[in-house]
């Protein structure tokens, strides 16, 4: 790491701390040549492979902007969207891969968005999953209703009861 002040090609780490979301490390460094201190932030790189084959860096902001469109007119706050984007990033990072398909990110968005707002979920899913007809919407709504009924009766998705 070059010193940003004197361009000396080395520095020593004085202190390291994780950031608030735990996905990056902030390091205080000191240059052994000029003695000045500076901070760096380290994150594990994560790249997204788009459908076109283009590779670009992962961006929470892109998740927020994409989901924000589905949430227009819904009682969803910017804070809610930031938490959703963080959950999605944590999910895709758990795969351990340095590159992830854009489609996998869309799949990772669906469940947290369903939990946040079902109408926004239906809007997002209709575009993401390419709903072609009213039948597609009806099938998605039926599935949501079944899950609501199961949750209300204490039955899990596999048909068994919840352990007591």
TrEMBL record:
Its cofactor is Zn(2+). Keywords: ATP-binding, DNA-binding, Metal-binding, Nucleotide-binding, Repressor, Transcription, Transcription regulation, Zinc, Zinc-finger. Binds 1 zinc ion. GO terms for biological process: negative regulation of DNA-templated transcription. A zinc finger (unnamed) spans 3-34. Transmembrane segments: none annotated. Residues 46-136 form the ATP-cone domain. Pfam families: ATP-cone (PF03477), Zn_ribbon_NrdR (PF22811). InterPro entries: ATP-cone_dom, NrdR-like_N, RNR_NrdR-like. One of its GO terms (molecular function) is DNA binding. PROSITE patterns: ATP_CONE (PS51161). Negatively regulates transcription of bacterial ribonucleotide reductase nrd genes and operons by binding to NrdR-boxes. Belongs to the NrdR family. This is Transcriptional repressor NrdR. It comes from Herbiconiux ginsengi.
């Amino acid at each position: 790491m070059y010193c940003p002040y004197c361009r000396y090609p080395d520095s020593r780490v004085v202190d390291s701390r994780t950031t608030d979301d735990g996905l990056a490390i902030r390091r205080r460094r000191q240059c052994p040549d000029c003695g000045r201190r500076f901070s760096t932030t380290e994150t594990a790189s994560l790249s997204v492979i788009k459908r076109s084959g283009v590779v670009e860096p992962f961006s929470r902001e892109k998740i927020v902007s994409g989901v924000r469109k589905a949430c227009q007119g819904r009682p969803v706050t910017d804070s809610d969207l930031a938490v959703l984007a963080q959950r999605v990033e944590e999910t895709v990072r758990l795969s351990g891969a340095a590159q992830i398909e854009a489609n996998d990110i869309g799949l990772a968005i669906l469940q947290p968005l369903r939990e946040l707002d079902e109408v926004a979920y239906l809007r997002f899913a209709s575009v993401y999953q390419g709903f072609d007809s009213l039948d597609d919407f009806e099938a998605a709504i039926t599935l949501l209703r079944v899950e609501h009924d199961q949750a209300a009766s204490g039955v899990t998705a596999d048909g068994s009861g919840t352990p007591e």
